[in-house]
Amino acid sequence: LNNHSNHSNPEDPNSVDIMNLYIKNLEPHITNHDLNQTFRKFGRIISARVMTNPATGQSKGYGFVSFGKSEEAAAALKEMNGAMLGNRPLTVAYHEPRK
């Protein structure tokens, strides 16, 4: 039986959210649906969203994909960091919650 938790410790200054990926260098036309379609092969997606300017609705060029399991997020991170989406290579990293 293992009792270790998959969740990062909020007390740890180096903590990252191991189920939530930060995706940047997105082309302006990439939508939430595109992110979902691109990352769903790695597992069950809880949410996929492109951050937009609330006033204009335009993409800010980055977003987040949250998986149901840390292993799924790890596989997506490994395969998709540097992968092309449209004409740009993606930068994929674990989301680091703001302090």
UniProtKB/TrEMBL annotation:
Keywords in alphabetical order: Cytoplasm, Nucleus, Repeat, RNA-binding
GO terms for cellular component: cytoplasm; nucleolus; precatalytic spliceosome
Domain of life: Eukaryota
GO MF assignments: RNA binding
Compartments, record wording: Cytoplasm; Nucleus
Pfam families xrefs: RRM_1
GO BP, one annotated term: positive regulation of mRNA splicing, via spliceosome
InterPro entries, per database record: Nucleotide-bd_a/b_plait_sf (IPR012677), RBD_domain_sf (IPR035979), RRM_dom (IPR000504), SF3B4_spliceosome_assoc (IPR052084)
Residue ranges annotated for the RRM domain, each copy included: 19-97
Name recorded for this polypeptide: RRM domain-containing protein
